[in-house]
Specification:
heterodimer, A: about 160 residues, Ubiquitin-like (UB roll), DNA polymerase, domain 1, 5 helices, about 35% helix, about 15% strand, B: Aldehyde Oxidoreductase, domain 4, Aldehyde Oxidoreductase, domain 4
Chain lengths: ~160, ~750
């Protein structure tokens, strides 16, 4: 079976891997690069567990073929923190108990980062629509929405301080 | 948060530390069922029945075996033939059909190949010849005279030996004189209801890796209970438990659906035949078609009341459709009828088999159906009597000593406290917003105890490892650590809570029945109490006093000369463990128990909603969940259970249903078409935790996981009635069904 050699940037690092043409980006991340933080809940783009950023835009990695990311920049949940310093979203998810089983959490963190990157001060309704592509079956979304609200406050206060 | 009668000021219990397993789960390091890969592993794929009921005439695997990458193929013939009376016979047959396929999606063969794509292609090349048999697709069909048998191995439980039947249980409960009470009642309301099958909808599909070698299956999987995975897998393979080791992965949601097995013995057999590790992950479509949904139901409820609001009699008929294998859903449904005193009661319940997927538990199994019907009828009575629905329920609420439908007296329960808390809440005291209407309803779940083990090892620096066998579905590691911290008197973050494999901790039943924090927590506390006795003895040696003079206070040993009145300092836990070597060696303790005294949990919910008269769509604009937690060990995760249960119930009420075609195939087997609630469908879910401590737990814990899913359907149905005058009697209350009823007004 022939495999394509793909070069891209994953979580800031130039990366290359081999993948068959029909391999999804999700499978490539998990099986070729060992980045198991990106989860498969449906494989059909309905649950958002496999959310990643491709050139800064939110995508379901199960709907992208691996060869499509040649030359592009990908951020997964493993690339959200700054070294040991958790992203404010990761910290507010922990403090606000916004995860129960945790399987949807990576997708929500990536989707919430995409939301706050584009809209630093969202309303509750904007958060709910911004995260409507991600399914969570444990929390009823309440604590997730509150954690995103709290992270937005922290990020805005940090950016106002010019840090 | 309302602390009804819990005067104790704990240091750790009731606080909200960050969960110990949280970091790994927000950085992507936590390993769930599909996240382990072994060198040389193969991938498995299933062949599934395209018929709801069929005899398997022949299976030809030769073409599949010749395909590229294929290393092994298995069918039912590869597994031992269990006696049909064996407790895991149905599980074995559900994992892999033997001669007869009982539902569309039933596994009939499986393939292991080098890649997922090769396995899938080879599965499609397995040739199965079927003889289609008559299928039973509804409860009514199943219970009709002369109905074909859904499964010829089913016999009615607890009945005299007889012919096979479509009924798995028949339960008749009675007390008092229902006919006389109905004749004497001032108001009688009788209504019929039905519910479609719904799925637990955990986001993580079933997944496992099995590495078979030296006669032993080494299993890695996500489940609600790895000891049950072990015994079920061993039984299906026909080997001893010692030949199966199960290592628990993190579990990505279960809600009852991961209390059984589908994959592990199949992967084990494929691994045995191929000599390589085999990984199997279900697709979402397979999860919906081939794992257990909650039962469907048909219900008829009649309730009589006096004009001043005493509910004098209930006459109920409930039938649960459980798929193609025996189940106890009808009996459990009867057990869930327990919210009101009902001096006269007649409850007839059935468990009916259909040629649909084998039902699995779903959060307070069977209770949501019954509560939906009963709480709807109670609401009608409140309306007829012109009574506030909370006041009517307060007048009839079960208290300690009142009998459930099964005739069991309630222990101390908190229904009255929950009703009063809702009545006093900001939500209930407010006037519904313009254009919205309000409904409320009650839910009950009895909770269970069962067997648990815990080992607590003190480290030489005074930290501790708390080892249990209860998979952590939603924060139970944090709860175990909090109870250990409270008991030992040390910092919660100095404790490492661990979920150990089947060979590293004592037997522990499944995380189900809202039992983990109650029963496993009780074992943790008992092990810590054992350690305190050991610590006191070590301290006595160090202090040179009699052990009877030593007390344990705030994580330290105190005696008259050591902080106990004659000066000196107490000996802290860390000071004692530092000297363990010279005082007798490591400090460890194990406790195991079969926990009695699980505390039933009541919940009361309230919703304000709008009904779009043009589309039939229901929009929830405010929602409050009140529940008796006994004691909330980690209040954030108690709230999380209440919120999650509420929203699963909202999904059940508004959208979720298995839609079958005339041939018994599910037509909406994806998350696109089987629509669970998303964030934009919902408001915040307000919570009020009531604490009526359970006297049978050292910190007063009741289970909290399940009850929250019980009240939402009637809560919403009652609000829809208030909004439109229409009583919805069929779940889900989806827009087309609501619109039809609105147009019929």
């Amino acid at each position: 079976m022939s495999r394509t050699h793909i070069n891209c940037i994953v979580n800031g690092e130039p990366t290359d891997f081999l993948a068959a043409d029909a391999t999804s980006l999700l499978d490539a991340l998990r099986d070729e690069l060992g980045l198991i933080g990106t989860k498969e809940g449906c494989g059909t783009g309905d649950c958002g567990s496999c959310s990643v950023l491709v050139d800064g835009k939110l995508n379901c990695s199960c709907l992208i073929l691996a060869p499509e990311v040649e030359g592009r920049e990908i951020i997964t949940v493993e690339g959200i923190a700054d070294g040991d310093q958790l992203h404010p979203l990761q910290q507010t998810f922990l403090e606000g108990a916004a995860l129960q089983c945790g399987i949807c959490t990576p997708g929500f963190l990536v989707a919430a980062k995409a939301l706050l990157d584009a809209n630093p001060d969202p309303t509750e309704t904007e958060i709910r629509y911004g995260l409507a592509g991600n399914l969570c079956r444990c929390t009823g979304y309440d604590k997730i929405v509150r954690a995103v609200q709290e992270a937005a406050v922290q990020l805005n206060s940090t950016s106002k301080q010019g840090v | 948060m309302t602390a009804t009668e819990n005067p104790t000021n704990y240091k750790w219990v009731g606080t909200r530390p960050i969960r110990h397993d949280g970091f790994d789960k927000v950085v992507g390091k936590a390993r769930f069922g599909a996240d382990l890969n072994l060198p040389g592993q193969l991938h498995g794929a299933f062949v599934r029945s395209p018929h709801a009921h069929a005899r398997i005439v022949s299976i030809d695997t030769s073409a599949a075996e010749a395909m590229p990458g294929v290393k092994a193929v298995v069918t039912g013939d590869d597994f031992p033939a269990l006696d049909p009376t064996h407790p895991n016979y149905d599980t074995a047959v559900n994992c892999m059909a033997r001669g007869e396929a009982f539902y569309h999606g039933h596994a009939v063969a499986a393939v292991a190949a080098t890649t997922k794509a090769e396995a899938k292609a080879a599965a499609a090349a397995v040739e199965v010849e079927y003889e289609v048999l008559p299928a039973v697709l509804s409860i009514a069909d199943s219970m009709a005279d002369g109905a074909p048998l859904a499964n010829p191995n089913n016999h009615t439980k607890f009945a005299p030996p007889g012919d096979p039947s479509n009924l798995a249980t028949i339960t008749n409960l009675a007390r008092g004189d229902v006919d006389q009470a109905m004749a004497d009642a001032d108001v009688v309301v009788e209504m019929g209801f039905d519910c479609a099958h719904v799925h637990q909808g955990y986001i993580e599909p079933h997944a496992c890796v099995v590495d078979y070698g030296d006669g032993k299956a080494n299993v890695w999987c996500s489940s609600q209970g790895h000891f049950r995975v072990r015994s079920m897998t061993a039984d299906v393979l026909g080997v001893d438990n010692s030949k199966v080791k199960v290592v628990p992965a993190e579990i990505g949601g279960g809600f009852g659906g991961k209390t059984t097995i589908y994959l592990e013995p199949i992967a084990a057999k494929l691994s045995e035949k191929s000599g390589k590790p085999v990984k199997i992950t279900m697709t979402r479509e397979e999860v919906l078609r081939g794992s257990g949904p909650a039962p469907s139901a048909e219900l008829r409820i009649k309730i009589g009341a006096t004009k001043d609001g005493e509910l004098t009699a209930i006459d109920g008929w409930m039938a649960y459709g459980v798929g193609a294998f025996s189940d106890m859903a009808g009996l459990i449904g009867a057990m869930s009828v327990a919210s009101y005193k009902f001096p006269n009661l007649r409850m007839e319940t059935y468990t009916a088999l259909t040629n649909t997927p084998k039902s699995a538990a779903y959060r307070a199994p069977s209770a949501p159906h019954a509560a939906w019907a009963i709480e709807s009828v109670v609401d009608e009575i409140a309306t007829e009597l012109g009574m506030d629905p909370i006041d009517l329920r307060l007048k009839n609420a079960a208290v300690e000593g009142d009998l459930t439908a099964m005739g069991m007296p309630h222990p101390r329960v908190g229904l009255v406290e929950c009703l009063e808390a809702l009545k006093a809440s900001d939500h209930y005291q407010s006037v519904p917003a313009e254009g919205t209407s309000r409904g409320m309803a009650v839910g009950f779940w009895f909770n269970i105890g069962e067997e648990s083990s815990a080992t607590v090892n003190l480290n030489e620096d005074g930290t501790a490892n708390v080892i249990t066998g209860s998979p952590d579905i939603g924060g139970s590691r944090a709860s175990m650590a909090l109870m250990a911290a409270e008991t030992l008197g040390i910092d919660v973050y100095s404790i490492t809570p661990i979920v150990a494999d089947t060979e590293s901790v004592g037997f522990t039943d499944v995380t189900e029945g809202s039992r983990a924090t109650f029963a496993t927590g009780k074992a943790v506390v008992e092990a810590c109490e054992d350690l305190i006795e050991q610590l006191k003895a070590r301290a006595a040696t160090i202090m040179g006093v009699d052990v009877g003079e030593v007390a344990w206070v705030d994580g330290a040993a105190v005696s008259p000369g050591h902080g106990g009145g004659e000066g000196g300092d107490p000996l802290t836990l860390a000071q004692i463990t530092a000297q363990a070597k010279r005082t007798g060696g490591p400090l460890t303790a194990t406790a195991s128990l079969n926990a009695a005294g699980a505390g039933p949990s009541f919940a009361v919910h309230c919703a304000d909603l709008k009904v779009d008269e043009e589309t039939g769509e229901i929009e929830i604009v405010r929602y409050t969940a009140v529940q008796d937690a006994g004691t909330a060990i980690h209040p954030s995760y108690v709230e999380g259970q209440m919120q999650g249960g509420s929203v699963q119930g909202i999904g059940w009420a508004l959208n979720e249903e298995y839609i079958y075609n005339a041939d018994g195939a599910m037509e909406n087997a994806s998350f696109l078409d089987y629509r669970i609630p998303v964030a934009s469908d919902l408001p915040l879910i307000e919570t009020i935790i009531v604490e009526v401590p359970n006297p049978a737990h050292p910190y007063g814990v009741r289970g909290v996981g399940e009850t929250g899913i019980v009240p939402p359907m009637a809560t919403i149905g009652n609000a829809v009635k208030a909004a439109t005058g229409v009583r919805m009697t069929s779940l889900p209350m989806s827009p087309p069904k609501v619109l039809k009823r609105l147009n019929e007004r």
